[in-house]
């Protein structure tokens, strides 16, 4: 085979399996997104988040996660955290808001977002983070696993770390609508069909047990819902009297068929647009 043909083959292989990039300059940004194939950490110029003071009705979760994050940023022991519960109640918003608040005093604290479908590559991400001087919150949003989904095994590389152990400068914060990350019928199927039911189920259920912190989020009541909107109005300078806000917000909630922090923000976005107020 000619040298030219070998060069073409080598180039084709390089395109199919590009070499991983080196770790970025972590001082260049406070947030990064993990992308595999090729492996790289992409800096985020501006994180989409709200001020932690605007998050209403999650005081206990906020205080617990804040204390854990401050410990971690200071180089002290800290737990992995699972934020679970009702949709739209600010689980991911809280993670990003707490990081922003703590990073203002500890600029070496970074947040790295990892998509659930990229979990099989997580050990390679950890190798890039392991030797860095910065400290990292590894953030996986909307984490859950379905039938025949083996991605949960990759998550153990972060929670347990295998023979090397989880890097001391990495902690995992994940959000999920499920407390046990697996659908109940999947767990029941494993229990009914396995030779050793307790062992078959334990591996899946115990995944949640590997998080040191479980922070529950529950549907908000009407007072909290209205307080969220009033907080947004005050923060962004949107003027509206209490009676009008209450009537419009309750009507908005009724049309959506639900009440949550997400619905509160959606109503406020509509309100700000009608008032000519930019939110950027």
Topology of this protein?
Blueprint: H1 3-16, E1 31-35, E2 40-43, H2 59-73, E3 81-85, H3 91-103, E4 109-113, H4 122-130, E5 135-140, H5 151-159, E6 170-176, H6 184-193, H7 197-209, E7 213-217, H8 222-236, H9 242-256, H10 261-275
Parallel strand pairs: 1-4, 3-6, 3-7, 4-5, 5-6
Antiparallel strand pairs: 1-2
Any overview of this molecule?
This protein folds into two domains: 26-217, P-loop containing nucleotide triphosphate hydrolases (Rossmann fold, 3-Layer(aba) Sandwich), CATH 3.40.50; 222-275. It has ten helices and seven strands. The chain has helices at 3-16, 59-73, 91-103, 122-130, 151-159, 184-193, 197-209, 222-236, 242-256, 261-275, and strands at residues 31-35, 40-43, 81-85, 109-113, 135-140, 170-176, 213-217. A seven-stranded mixed sheet has the order 2-1-4-5-6-3-7. Helix 6 (184-193) runs antiparallel to helix 7 and helix 8 (222-236) runs parallel beside helix 10. The longest helix is centred in the first third of the chain and has 15 residues, at 59-73. The chain is globular. It starts with a helix and ends in a 5-residue tail after the last helix.
């Amino acid at each position: 085979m000619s040298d030219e043909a070998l060069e073409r083959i080598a180039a084709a292989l390089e395109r199919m399996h590009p070499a991983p990039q080196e770790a970025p300059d972590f001082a260049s940004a406070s947030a990064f997104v993990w992308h595999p194939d090729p492996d790289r950490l992409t800096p985020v110029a501006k994180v989409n988040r709200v001020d932690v003071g605007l998050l209403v009705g999650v005081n206990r979760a906020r205080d617990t996660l804040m204390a854990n994050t401050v410990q971690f940023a200071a180089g002290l022991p800290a737990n992995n955290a699972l934020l679970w519960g009702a949709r739209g109640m600010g689980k991911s918003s809280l993670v990003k808001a707490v990081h922003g608040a703590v990073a203002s005093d500890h600029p070496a604290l970074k947040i790295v977002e990892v998509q659930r479908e990229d979990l099989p590559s997580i050990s390679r991400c950890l190798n890039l983070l392991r030797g860095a001087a910065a400290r990292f919150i590894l953030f996986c949003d909307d984490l859950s696993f379905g039938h025949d989904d083996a991605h949960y095994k990759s998550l153990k590389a972060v929670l347990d770390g295998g023979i090397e152990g989880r890097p001391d400068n990495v902690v995992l914060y994940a959000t999920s609508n499920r407390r046990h990350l697996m659908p109940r019928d999947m767990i029941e199927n494993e229990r009914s069909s396995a030779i050793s039911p307790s062992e078959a189920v334990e591996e899946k259920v115990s995944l949640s047990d590997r998080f040191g912190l479980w922070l529950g989020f529950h549907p908000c009541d009407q007072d909290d819902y209205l307080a969220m909107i009033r907080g947004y109005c005050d923060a962004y300078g949107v003027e509206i009297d209490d009676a009008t806000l209450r009537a419009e917000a309750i009507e908005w909630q009724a049309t959506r068929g639900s009440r949550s922090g997400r619905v509160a923000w959606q109503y406020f976005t509509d309100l700000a647009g009608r008032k000519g107020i930019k939110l950027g």
